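Reviewer 2 asked us to include a model.

Predict the structure of this chain.
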Amino acid sequence: MPDGVHQSLILVILVPKHNDEKFSVLYEYKPYRKDDNFFYFDQPNIFNLARRGFIIAKVGICGTGSSQDVPIECEYTTQELDDCEHVIKQLADYSLSDGLVRMYGHCAGDPCSTYNDCDGSMICLNGKCGDVGSTVCNTPCTWIGHCCGDSCSTYDDCDGSLICVNGKCSSDSSSNGGGDGTCSPSGVLQGTHTLCNTENFSTCCKSNVNYTQYTCSPSSTSSAILTLNSFREGGDGGFGGACYGAFYPDTQRVVALSTGWFNRGSRCGKMITIHGNGKTTTAEVVDECDSVHGCDDEHAGQPPCRNNIVDGSPAVWQALGVSKNDPRYGQLSVSWND
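Predicted model (structure tokens):
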């Protein structure tokens, strides 16, 4: 950069068939996750685009990942934007580039797993970036293959509060979370921008984005999502566990349950059995994965949990045999029981 700082770059280049062949560049400017396990999630898209004749460039914003300098206090500062323009110019001047540099990966219709994967005010809806209210079934979904419109046979085949209607996962506006086993949203929390702990693929709240709230969880525990959380002091779990106000080392098998399953602390201190990745383990319930509140210091700047979450410590993931290099690390379909 003009100020002498070196930014870190992952560059996927193509071998030209002849000396004059040039390629357009697809450019992604990453404030985080350029070097972590999310890269493995991106790999199929990267190589698919490369096979279509694009050079792929993933650049880490200064002060993040393996780039130099110190983190910038505010998002999208003048320095960030200036650096972005300089990188674009360098990519346009690259010897194999045809001079065209396009940014990709965070626009409407692009794949996503969390709200942070989408540009501007867009959020992650059913595995794709989109605007709130842009689809009839706009319940956030990250269990890919079990989202709105996907094939199903039973309620357990569908993510979160979605239910199986005529062989397709869909939302049911007539459901009240009663005796039929479903769980409908109880309200909406408007997001505010606050300091956020992004450890373990955590989603951060965005200002003026509406986040779905739930006071219930599905009656069935056979289609839960295991997420990753550090319960140690200073970890992305925020304050001490809701059960005892305590912190726990990453080596201890502990979990937080979505509000409905947490059931006002009735499962505190109890061991649950978790089935996933062809293995089984046990873990102690020590915290609530709050499905109602969020976007504050207590919740580490993260939005309310989905209603079918088992938030497990690293030790739980290790016991299920899912390593950090596994693209499923951080989000895994599981079932559990008391």
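The first helix runs from residue 38 to 51. The radius of gyration is 21 Å. We have added this to the supplementary material.
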